[in-house]
Amino acid sequence: MRALNPKFIDSRLQIANQMNITEADIERIAQLAHLEITDSDCKTFAPQISEIVTYVEQLNAIDTSSVEPALGGLTPEGERTESSRPDEVQPSLGQKLALDQAPDPASGHFRVPKVLA
Q1: Which domains does the chain have, with CATH numbers?
Q2: How far is it, in rounded angstroms, from Cα 113 to Cα 106?
């Protein structure tokens, strides 16, 4: 584990401690998510989410400048997997084959149920 710079941690935690999620923020998030939420829920969730954000902000205190970005995942044994591949043009299925198993093809397209009003 890498040593953390205390000055950096203190400055990041001060910023994180200033991150207050308000009841208005909770109402806006609920509206965007199409959730019905009561005033009581807003009062409950605002401080809880503020605490979560403050906790997660602590991750910014970790020096990751020398850590190579991870691509792919790990095998069950914990070994890295190589997930990158050359970006080469590959032949496509073609319209007829792609629509062959479609439940409701229409005029050479996939027909799907309407999801937006």
Answers
A1: 19-61 (1.10.20)
A2: 12
Strand residues in the chain grouped as ranges (E): 105-106, 109-110
Q: How many other CB atoms are found less than 10 A from the CB of residue 9?
A: 14
- What pLDDT, on a 0 to 100 scale, did the predictor assign at position 18? 57
The DSSP letter of residue 66 is T
| Confidence class for position 78, pLDDT limits 50, 70, 90 | confident
47 with 23: CB under 8 angstroms?
no
Q: What is the pTM of this model?
A: 0.46
Cα angle 71, 8, 67 (rounded to 5 degrees) comes to: 20
Name the residue type at position 5. N
What single DSSP character describes residue 80? B
